[in-house]
Amino acid sequence: MAAVTCVLWEDNFLCSICLDVFTAPVTIQCGHNFCKACIIENWRINRKRQCPVCKKSFDTRTEVHVNTFISEMVAQLRQSAMKKSLEVALAGEVPCDICAGTKLKALKSCLVCLSSYCETHLERHRTVSGLKRHKLIEPLVNLGGRMCTKHDELMELFCKTDQMCVCHLCYELDHNSHHVVTLSEECEEEKAKLASTEAEFQCMIEERQLKVLELRGSVQLSKEAADKAAADGVPVFTVLKQLLETDLSKLTEEIKRKQEITANHAKGLIEELDREISELTRRNDEVKQLSRSDDPLHLLQNSSSLRTFPPTKDWEKVSLHQLSFEGTVARAVARLKETLSRDTMALLEAELKRVQQYAVDVTLDPNTTHPTLTLSVDGKQVNHSDVDMTLPDNPDRFSTCILVLGRQSFSSSRFYYEVEVKGKTKWDLGVASGLANRKGLVTSSPEAGYWTLQLRNGNEYTALADPDILLPLKSRPQRVGVFVDYEEGLVSFHDVDTADIIYSFTGCTFNGKLYPFFSPCFDDGGVNSARLRISSVHEADVI
Prior knowledge:
Elements: H1 2-11, E1 25-27, E2 33-35, H2 36-46, E3 65-66, H3 68-83, E4 108-110, E5 115-117, H4 123-127, H5 129-132, E6 136-137, H6 143-146, E7 157-159, E8 164-166, H7 168-174, E9 180-182, H8 183-291, H9 296-306, H10 328-356, E10 373-375, E11 381-384, E12 404-405, E13 414-420, E14 427-433, E15 450-456, E16 460-463, E17 469-471, E18 479-485, E19 490-495, E20 501-505, E21 514-519, E22 532-535
Helix pairs in contact: 8-9, 8-10
């Protein structure tokens, strides 16, 4: 009965506003009790002081007073609730359907009342004659959903044939010829299936977590590469800026020096003129004074000397030589261009060295070779032959065009290889998609899955970009480097000897694997008989 007392006690200490146990209880003039915060907020919202229970109004100056008795009782109530915490229904346990406020753990469930009861509220089923006949079972959650809607019986069986839960009457009337098991048996089997599903989910989660780590790693690598590229660019452009500033300073100094030469020359002439003007002015003053003299003897004795002019320069033939500034800027720009050309060459060499670090070992794949092509034993050289060899027409082989692919494929990251083209008047190089057509006439373009460069007529270099782009090269490459950045969508061709970038396909979209692509073309009666040779990167024998 102590539990009953506790429940009644808890009901007597509920605030009629928040319907919860009092917090900081106060008593107003009518004698009703509320949480202090609740009554103050109620008055603030209604803008008048009135009891929410009896509706009695009070003066606006009315104050609330703490009810110490109720405060002590509430404190004891909370302490008592803490002591019985072990009886409270925990997570996963069936709570009592009758308990108000804190739910106690249910001991039994009634199949007639479809409710679960704690020790206290189960008492009536043990004492009342009508309730004693009710069937009590171990506590179950959601009893209503466990009852057969047709027979009002507990569903304790599972029909595997119809995949549904049934009661005993359902089994006897409708499912006696079916495969029926107990719920516990089916539950164990289903648990095994769920365990397998859970393992699959966990595997999928782990795969995706690894992919997240991979993507984050890729982002970090990309950031590091971007930071390095930006850092590498700073000193380069700092040097260029310093070169521009230095050349501008030299240009300004040269112009200033020329102007100073002209100014100094003019200064000397002006000083000489000033001296002559002073002497002539002095003589002129003496002549004026003598001409006004009343002494004939004095005038005659001195006039002869004053009429003689002092030595002077013939200034009509004198002019200031203007130094020419024409071509000063042009010469400065030419010097700068020469300097930049040297620096550009250094940058190109640095870029070539950067891509060469991704060098891979490439060999030719005989399964893709056109029947008129001949490969070396080591798979590094290829040339055209007039003899059409009998080869099996497998799906990988080029049937019409004189082409061959590398044996190695790449579907990520970066790779680079070099091909010696010395002595050839025709060739095609690049990369090809593994999905590209190999039968019949092959159209070499990015849309068809080919990113290639070609030479025709000995000096006509073309990027097959659809439309094709004619490349005016200063020199004929003897060794061509091919670099691919799969993620960046880049295919670039380099003249290994000059370090120049011949052409770059950018913004490419690659699907699946990429293969190195080669064509030595027809030998043209021996004119183009030289072999294409895959060479090792950094070979000592410079062509």
